[in-house]
Amino acid sequence: MRPFLFLGVRPEDAPADDEYAAMLRCTGLSESTLRRVRLEAAPLGDVDLDAWSGIVLGGGPFCVSDPEDAKSPVQRRVEADLARLLDAVVPADVPFFGACYGIGTLGRHQGGVVDRTYPEPVGAVTVELTPAGRADPVLGSAPASFGAFVGHKESLAVPPPHAVVLATSAGAPVQAFRVGRNVYATQFHPELDVAGLTTRVEAYRYDGYFDPAEAAEVVAAARESGVQVPGVLRAFVDRYADAGLHPGDQSGTSAPHPRGEIGAAQG
């Protein structure tokens, strides 16, 4: 099997490492089959899309709707790297799953409106699948209504005109969407459990997601929410780990390990 590529953008080591560990658990992959690259640490470089079963983009503190003059050089470089990657991913319909930051990144790239109209505080929400979501091979692996953790300042206010909206919530009209057959993004965190949320609350206590004095209450509410990690990341991996489903590969055989490519970096 060709490995999957995980792209992280979190500058802080503790939540970055915890997120990668959560992605490993939720996908059922190992470090050798879910290779991590930290985009905030170095430029992405060229990615051989045929070398990967799929690509997963994690969340982070960046907001694509930030004023350009307020973005750090690292944020601007990360956004440019991801835009260049999506320039190749979307036309080729390469399997891609972006979580939280991914919905803003993919949504803006595809012509949607990303702004501060529908923020959601850190905590649990009820995600409702649309009819298209219930029929989708990835999102449809989850119940029609399920709890998940969110926490975002920006959101996709208007989806791209060609996007298929797969899920919604009371506070955000687009909780998941798909373009093409294989390119996904969610607003909710499909990898996040209470322990992971606790790590992020500590890491981002002073980043404006909540009143710092209320951190303990945020964690307590999460513990009482009963949220269970939905199985959509595992469904994504199960669907695309079969090399025969990879666009452009009809042989049903795995590509060789991409030594020398960006994905050869160690997690």
TrEMBL record:
<dbReference type="InterPro" id="IPR017926">
    <property type="entry name" value="GATASE"/>
</dbReference>
<feature type="domain" description="Glutamine amidotransferase">
    <location>
        <begin position="50"/>
        <end position="192"/>
    </location>
</feature>
<dbReference type="Pfam" id="PF00117">
    <property type="entry name" value="GATase"/>
</dbReference>
<keyword id="KW-0315">Glutamine amidotransferase</keyword>
<dbReference type="GO" id="GO:0005829">
    <property type="term" value="C:cytosol"/>
</dbReference>
<keyword id="KW-0808">Transferase</keyword>
<feature type="region of interest" description="Disordered">
    <location>
        <begin position="245"/>
        <end position="267"/>
    </location>
</feature>
<dbReference type="GO" id="GO:0016740">
    <property type="term" value="F:transferase activity"/>
</dbReference>
<dbReference type="InterPro" id="IPR044992">
    <property type="entry name" value="ChyE-like"/>
</dbReference>
<protein>
    <submittedName>
        <fullName>Glutamine amidotransferase</fullName>
    </submittedName>
</protein>
<dbReference type="InterPro" id="IPR029062">
    <property type="entry name" value="Class_I_gatase-like"/>
</dbReference>
